[in-house]
Design brief:
This protein is of the alpha+beta class. The chain has a single domain (4-279), classed as Double-stranded beta-helix (4-Layer Sandwich), CATH 3.60.130. It is built from seven helices and 16 strands. The protein has an eight-stranded mixed β-sheet, covered by helices on one side. A hairpin with a 6-residue loop joins strand 2 (11-15) and strand 3 (22-25).
Length: 285
């Protein structure tokens, strides 16, 4: 894994694994990109699916400006809206309403952000604010590689299937029935199980915790199939673990990666706070 020096673009790429991920070295994300840098970063995003920018210190406003260079900001679900002055910046934390660590880390199940939207998210940008002294990793699954690893019969089968993605069902699986307002805000949507990436043309399995069941099957049979498939592909050959450092900002492709937070720290003692923005994608096909 050798570094790629984008001399003309004034930054260096250091691959982080053979599977996915690259560290982008030499850019201050508080400074707007010129067209050449933006194009080169976007290409790296497509090539590596996950970009890591170290030693960044962005305010919420600056994170919004950085994010908007690559597309249209996606609104968050009702429950996940940010503060009134920054509703498009979701504060990801393990804090309770009094601001104390509550012992639970949210988003600890495999998912891709906003897959329940009619135009699922293109990208997530997550910026570390407060970290535990160790742990609190984010783990990713490369769904390109997971699809490529299937036998041909399974590939052919899932290419013909669609999945119902449901915010309501995913919340219920976490033991929290949603309100009528939340259901109106985020109704169910149907997407291909084997999704063609709109920019690379590659095929990725499109599942995660919002994927409820196979469209057109009985709920029980369709749910069992989705759960079994997820369990079979979220394993070591397809995983990459990001160990957070102070100042890290991650940008990843929701169209071909799953992710989850890991509670490998004392979540009752140490706060873990990150700022999240998302970019709207396109309708699936």
């Amino acid at each position: 894994m050798n570094a790629h020096d984008f001399t003309q673009e004034r930054f260096t790429l250091q691959p982080l694994s053979d599977l996915m991920g690259a560290e982008v070295i030499g850019l201050d994300l508080r400074q707007p990109f010129d067209p050449d840098i933006k194009a080169a970063v976007h290409k790296a995003f497509l090539d590596y699916q996950l970009l890591v920018f170290r030693d960044q210190n962005l305010t919420k406003d600056e994170q919004v400006v950085f994010t908007e260079q690559f597309g249209t900001l996606e609104r968050h679900a009702v429950r996940n809206r940010g503060t009134s002055d920054h509703p498009l910046v979701h504060i990801v934390s393990n804090l309770d309403e009094s601001g104390k660590p509550m012992g639970k880390v949210r988003s600890d199940k495999w998912h891709t952000d906003k897959s329940f939207r009619p135009e699922p998210s293109m990208a997530t940008i997550l910026h570390a604010q407060t970290l535990p002294p160790d742990g609190g990793d984010t783990v990713f699954v490369n769904m390109y590689a997971a699809f490529d690893g299937l036998n041909q019969a399974t590939k052919d089968k899932i290419r013909s299937l669609n999945v119902v993605h449901s915010w309501a069902t995913s919340r219920e699986h976490e033991g929290r029935p949603v309100t009528a307002e939340e259901k109106r805000d985020a109704p169910d949507n149907v997407h291909p199980l084997a999704r063609i990436h709109p920019e690379t043309g590659r095929t990725a399995i499109f599942i995660g915790m919002h994927a409820s069941h196979i469209d057109g099957w009985s709920f029980e049979e369709g749910r069992a199939f989705v759960v079994e498939l997820e369990e079979s592909v979220t394993r070591a050959p397809y995983l990459f673990r990001h160990k957070w450092q102070a100042g890290d900002l991650l940008m990843w492709d929701n169209r071909c990666l799953l992710h989850r937070a890991e509670a490998n720290f004392d979540a009752r003692k140490f706060p873990r706070i990150l700022h999240r923005t998302c970019l709207r994608g396109t309708a699936t096909q």
